[in-house]
Amino acid sequence: MLKKIFLPLENSPYTAAALDYACFIAKRQNAEVTGGIFMDIEKVNTPLGTLETDGGIKWMDDIDEETVSNAKPTVDYLMHILKDKCERQNVKYSFETEIGIPSSQITNLSKYYDIIVTGIKSDYGLIKRNFKVSFLQKILETSASPVFAVPNYFRAIHNIIIAYDASLTAARALQRFVHIADFTDQNIIIVSSSKDSAWAKDNLKRAKEYLLSYGAQNVATDYTQMEIIKVLQSSYFDFADLIVLGSHSQNIVKDIFVGNLTKQLIMDAKKALFIGI
């Protein structure tokens, strides 16, 4: 069961989409969305201020007025969009008390939440440059919580692909997904790629049984010897609203599976990804 959703906020189309996804998940599970306002500002390694009980902000004494002046419009905007969206959607919400937190603190705070929802190319810089995936990669390297990484648009989640190779990280992704998923009106296909058909099909059968035991209704499986990214691109990209996968594969001998699958899907930045850690 999912109760606490952590939503790092920064001013980009990715945050707008992440907010839509966070509310979509929260409504289905009666969970709370907690927004944290993150800003990377040169030579500023501490939060810019704290949120007071009346909704105002107490800016830190050692933060210069120019930094506050530059940051305040973004802070106000981010607080407004989360408050407005959650209230219109009737979703419970809160804010992390510290405001303008460096992005290096995202994973430390996320330890106390069920999931992180973030844009695939969110960068948390106050001054925007070309969007990159380096921040997501850092989060995946250090997070204790699964990561829901989203593209810069929202698409309701009804059709789910689980890329499964029975590796440790794929198994963790499967377990974490079923523990916080809501299977209402969702179609799931588990896809596995391996040269060993008997081994792969046995693991697909077991994975399907595991999902069914948690209340999943519509579960299919697909085994292939093709490279997994090619199968996903040719057969499942249009279908999938969400792809579930581990952060990397460890079954080097058994399969021709993930390898760089997670990296390729992140670089592609076109599908929402549930990435188990």
Fold topology:
Blueprint (H helix, E strand, L loop, with lengths): L3 E6 L3 H17 L2 E7 L10 E3 L5 E3 L5 H25 L2 E10 L4 H5 L4 E5 L14 H9 L4 E4 L8 E5 L4 H13 L6 E7 L3 H17 L4 E7 L3 H9 L5 E5 L14 H8 L3 E5 L1
List its salient traits.
single chain, alpha/beta, 12-stranded mixed β-sheet
Overall description:
- Helices cover 37% and strands 24% of the residues.
- It is of the alpha/beta class and 277 residues long.
- The model is unreliable at 249-259 (pLDDT under 50).
Largest sheet: 12 strands, mixed
Taken in chain order, the helices and strands follow as: EHEEEHEHEHEEHEHEHEHE
Overall structural class, as computed from helix and strand content, comes to alpha/beta
What percentage of residues falls in helices of 4 or more residues?
25-40%
Mean pLDDT value: 89
Percentage beta strand:
15-25%
| Cα end-to-end separation | 17 Å
Instruction: Show unreliable segments.
Output: 249-259
Short description:
This protein is an alpha/beta fold. The protein has eight helices and twelve strands. A twelve-stranded mixed β-sheet has the order 4-3-5-2-1-6-7-12-11-8-9-10, sandwiched between helices.
